[in-house]
Specification:
The chain is α/β, with parallel strands linked by helices. The protein contains 7 helices and 11 strands. It has one domain: Rossmann fold (3-Layer(aba) Sandwich), CATH 3.40.50.1360. It is globular and about 50 Å long. The chain binds 2-amino-2-deoxy-6-O-phosphono-alpha-D-glucopyranose.
Length: 253
């Protein structure tokens, strides 16, 4: 079932409220954080709402899904910079509790093993936020990635590099590789919210609906997860049959 919302602002409202509820019931919640355009209105609403409610975020722990290889945390297009810009610079976040893969780690393979282990040392992810790429990738797990993968280095597909070029300067080169949490790391999360907005995501959502679980469409692995919600706006839902769309905005439980 796909949960359909009228627009991105109603999705931001809903997901922000879900985050706030989680933090209230467990201040040391471990959040799996995503980046990308989809998350921007969600983080903006969350920052606003947390501020209004004077929510204490000092215990919150987060692990980001991915980072470009070669971009240090100070690079303006790194995901570390994205997270500072959209979340960490607000509300007294404690940076030592917020983790991202290091795109400039000396030994990338070793770093990946340590990153997956660090997630587990913190008790695993309570709530994982996910966007989805137009080819069905989650994190940077491109089509063909093994479902049992852990954090690893990935060569980005041409499609993904073209999609993400909008975040880089006109003639800048989008990094060719990245570190990503693996599909098994993602599936280990106790709860997952996948958010897809805009008409560019409509074809891949239709593929998700039409296909069985297949490594060719990485996010189909979520069909095996016991606690996942796919949250979609009307534009992204435009190729889905009504029979699989739920339009009631139920209270977050
Ligand atoms: C990017 C990120 C993903 C993100 C996805 C969708 O490449 N690695 O974590 O969820 O692609 O991005 P957007 O929300 O900008 O469409």
């Amino acid at each position: 079932m796909f949960h359909i919302f009228p627009d991105t602002s109603s999705i931001a409202e809903y997901v922000s409220a879900a985050l706030i509820d989680k933090i209230k019931s467990k201040p040391g919640v471990v959040l799996g954080a995503a980046t990308g355009g989809t998350m921007e209105p969600i983080y903006a609403r969350f920052v606003q709402q947390a501020h209004q409610e004077r929510l204490d975020l000092s215990q919150l722990i987060s692990f980001n899904l991915d980072e470009y290889v070669g971009l240090g945390a100070d690079h303006p297009k790194s995901y570390a910079a994205y997270m500072r810009e959209h979340l960490f610079n607000y509300l007294g976040f404690n940076e030592s509790r917020h983790h991202l893969p290091d795109g400039q780690a000396k030994n990338l393979e070793e770093h990946c093993v340590e990153y997956s282990a660090k997630v587990q040392q913190h008790g695993g992810i309570d709530l994982q936020l996910l966007g989805v790429g137009s080819n069905g990738h989650i994190g940077f797990n491109e089509p063909g990635t093994a479902f049992d993968s852990r954090c690893h280095v990935v060569q980005l597909s041409e499609r993904t590099r073209i999609d993400n070029s909008r975040f880089f300067a006109k003639n800048a080169i989008v990094p060719a590789s990245a570190i990503t949490m693996g599909l098994q790391d993602i599936m280990d999360a106790r709860e997952i919210l996948l958010i897809a907005t805009g008409e560019s995501k409509a074809p891949i959502l239709a593929e998700y609906y039409q296909n069985d679980i297949t490594e060719a469409i990485p996010f189909t692995v979520l069909k095996r997860h016991p606690n996942v919600k796919i949250i979609v706006d009307e534009a992204a839902a435009s190729l889905l049959p009504d029979s699989v769309c739920k339009r009631t905005i139920e209270a977050y439980v």
